[in-house]
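Researcher: Structure prediction, please.
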Amino acid sequence: MNLAPIVLFTYNRLNHTQQTVAALQKNHLALESNLYIYSDGPKNDTATESVTAVRSYLKTITGFQSITIIERDTNWGLADSIVDGVTTVVQKYGKIIVLEDDIVTSPLFLQYMNDALALYEKDKQVMHISGYFYPVATNQLPDTFFYNQTSCWGWSTWASAWSSYNGDAKELLGKITEAGRLNEFDMDGNFKFSSTLRANIRSDIKTWAIKWHASVFIKQGLCLHPKLSLTQNIGNDGTGTNAQQSNRYNTDLEEQIVLPIQRTSLKQSNVALGLVKKFLKATRPSMIQKIINKVWK
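Model: Predicted structure follows.
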């Protein structure tokens, strides 16, 4: 199998990075995989020591076919670093597996990703492979299915799909609105993805994942997910860029998924969509909590 390269984005969280790499090293295909690591530069003097510590650790990593470390001379910020890194590597190889420094993977993660990339390579409607799925009751779902959200806690794609990435939040929101799909984009009001686009337009935040999600949504692309999550996000402890402390998205790490995966119908699962809407509705903060959050902000 022609394996996809792995791209890992790091900054200044040594402990998280070590856990992410340790889990990745335990993957069955790690020794056959090329690993690219992007290390962002410190944004201020305070961050210099922690960035240096991460970079020292990165130079000790083994367990992959090759390891290439790209040290940014300046602080690019997560969004710009990921978009540039993904674009550079996916254009070289045609496909890519992407991780951030707080994503712990199952030992089956790389096999699942490479299987899916090979299985759906010629299906241009399929644009994104996710390693994560929400902590919902999945007994009604097959081992893999299409649910059209670009969950980015461990994911993969192809150069042909990534070429549709649009970094202009205003343009993206305009296209979704003009198409009359805003309510659909916001999961019938259960998750306000459009609010994140608007926050980017106002420059309140600078994120990339919502733009990738919107880009795929506009193209009506399909996103493959596993029934049981093959990744855990250990960064929901308030330490990451744009991250808030929360455990509501925590999942058990699956190590029993049946591989190789089998093809599934090229359409979104209404069962999966319904489960996610129900989960998001149940986890939305109450009005009282919203007021408390606003006060604390």
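Model: The chain has one domain: 6-296.
Researcher: Thanks, that helps.
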